[in-house]
Amino acid sequence: MRHSNQRRQPLLPMKRRSALLALFAGALCVLAACAPSANAPAPAPDAASAPAGPAAAAPEATTAAAEAKVASTAAAASADSGAGDSSLERMAALPATASLPAGKWVAGTNYRPLAPAQPTDAEPGKVEVVEMFWYACPHCYALDPYLESWRKSLPAYVEFRRVPVTWGEAHRAHARLFYTLQALGKEEALHAAVFNEIHENKNYLFTMGDERQTQAAQAAFATAHGIGAADFATAYGSFSVQTNLQKADDLVRRYRVDGVPTLIIGGKYVTDITMAGGKPSDLISLVNDLAMAARRR
């Protein structure tokens, strides 16, 4: 199940929005993904569940939309060259026979080749794996322990990094927190703690329409974890954080990210847990194979 990118909708009244989010949360599972909305507010503190993407569409409807998008991509490539899945591989300049173990993964089904391939920040000889995520996404929260375990046994040629999505006000507020912690050298130390604060403590570190309250909540979280208030404020408004937010905007656009968590491998392949088959272990296996394929190019 995956939520597709949808046209931005006006915000609902808070009471109705909270009720819808609470209802929708009951249908959420690890297989789903969060998608952009107009401002994508986190649930109100009294909501009964973890924050999620837009509540306007049912999981079944958004799944069908995502599947239709993948199918249309494959169909367009097939019409262009008459070669079905292999044409998607050619679009990414990598022959199907040289890319993945034969019969294990299917382009257009298990992953989407990026055409054209995008440049990465990886060092020569390295393959960059990027996780596009949102702190308030319950599916990113569920996947994070698996990614952390995987990182401990990464091949030497793989470079992993996270990039927060910046679709709307809530996404951007959490992205600023991520880059502020990164500027302070605390990204790795506090990444899981931010997830826990939002999903376990129901402190969403964001107030719709009130940037001062958002910053105050995030600063309080930071000071509770040993970061000085002045240091946090300086990093929060720094040029480096603003630059990283702009880079994140660019990556969301270039990678055509319409849901999270999404993984981009080597600037050449895009996949997620649904495309991989629904299991975190399958996703990790797919990412490893795609990284090996990207390395051979």
In a few lines, what is going on in this structure?
The protein is built from twelve helices and five strands. It is an alpha+beta fold and 297 residues long.
Describe this structure in words.
- It is a single chain.
- The protein is of the alpha+beta class and 297 residues long.
- The protein has one domain: Glutaredoxin (3-Layer(aba) Sandwich), CATH 3.40.30.
- 49% of the residues lie in helices and 8% in strands.
- It has twelve helices and five strands.
- The chain has a five-stranded mixed sheet, sandwiched between helices.
- Helix 6 (169-183) packs antiparallel against helix 7 and helix 8 crosses helix 9 (229-236).
- The two termini are 31 Å apart.
- Mean pLDDT is 77; it is low at 1-32 and 42-98.
Outline the secondary-structure elements.
Layout: H1 14-25, H2 59-81, H3 85-91, H4 96-99, E1 112-113, E2 127-133, H5 138-151, E3 158-164, H6 169-183, H7 187-199, H8 211-224, H9 229-236, H10 239-254, E4 262-265, E5 269-271, H11 273-276, H12 280-296
Parallel strand pairs: 2-3
Antiparallel strand pairs: 1-5, 2-4, 4-5
Helix pairs in contact: 2-3, 6-7, 6-10, 8-9
